[in-house]
Write a structure and sequence with these properties.
Arc Repressor Mutant, subunit A, Tetracycline Repressor, domain 2, 10 helices, about 75% helix, TetR/AcrR family transcriptional regulator
């Protein structure tokens, strides 16, 4: 019971620090906020901040572990008879309808994107994150398809899926940053997503089908 309480308090402290940091970043931009200011806002010491987050960039990417696992989960949770690319089609279209954060289609994603675009260090960290997402997806595809260690197919498929979903998401966010509303963006995004997955399915529709 005592250990459970300590763990809960740690989670609450970590979340409070992350929430305060994101609020400051959204108001003033990433580069203009110091870790000391985040610590004061969260009523903790700077050392406490670094106990939970190794770098300032980690404060911005406090959900990194969850984000890195999202694509692998789509593959592991695909339905019977469903290929990897079909599972991603379904997941992406559901995210469009739900305006879900997992593909950056939620309210505030444009602000998030602008903050990243204004910070070289965050852009570098996001490139690392995207690389890790693609590698994790490739490993999951290899496991799910029982691929040979020298088989490049899981890596090729992962790269195609990740490039397609990122391109769609970035285009939607760019339009939002340009001043369009989600009501204007969503119909064309849905059409573009259907087209993108049509093209993918022509090449990899029979890969990693759940039996």
């Amino acid at each position: 019971m005592e250990e459970g309480l300590r763990e809960r308090k740690k989670r609450e402290t970590r979340q409070r620090i992350a929430d305060m940091a994101m609020g400051l970043f959204m108001m003033r931009g990433f580069e203009q906020v110091t870790v000391a200011e985040v610590a004061r806002a969260a009523d903790v010491s700077v050392n406490t901040v670094f106990n939970y987050f190794g770098t300032k960039e980690d404060l911005f990417l406090d959900r990194r572990e969850e984000v890195e696992e999202l694509q692998s989960r789509v593959v592991r949770e695909r339905r019977s008879g469903e290929s990897a690319v079909a599972a991603f089609r379904r997941d992406f279209l559901e995210a469009i309808e739900q305006r879900d954060w997992r593909y950056g289609l939620n309210e505030g994603s444009d602000v998030f994107g602008r903050i990243v675009g204004e910070s070289p260090s965050l852009m570098a960290r996001f490139r690392e994150l995207e690389h890790e997402q693609t590698q994790r997806l490739a490993r999951t595809l290899a496991e799910e398809s029982d691929a040979d260690p020298d088989d490049l197919t899981p890596h090729l498929v992962a790269a195609q899926i990740m490039d397609a979903t990122r391109l769609l998401s970035r285009h939607a966010i760019a339009r939002k940053l340009a001043g369009e509303s989600w009501a204007e963006i969503i119909p064309l995004l849905r059409s573009q997503a259907e087209r993108a997955f049509d093209l993918l399915e022509r090449g990899i529709s029979d890969y990693c089908v759940r039996m």
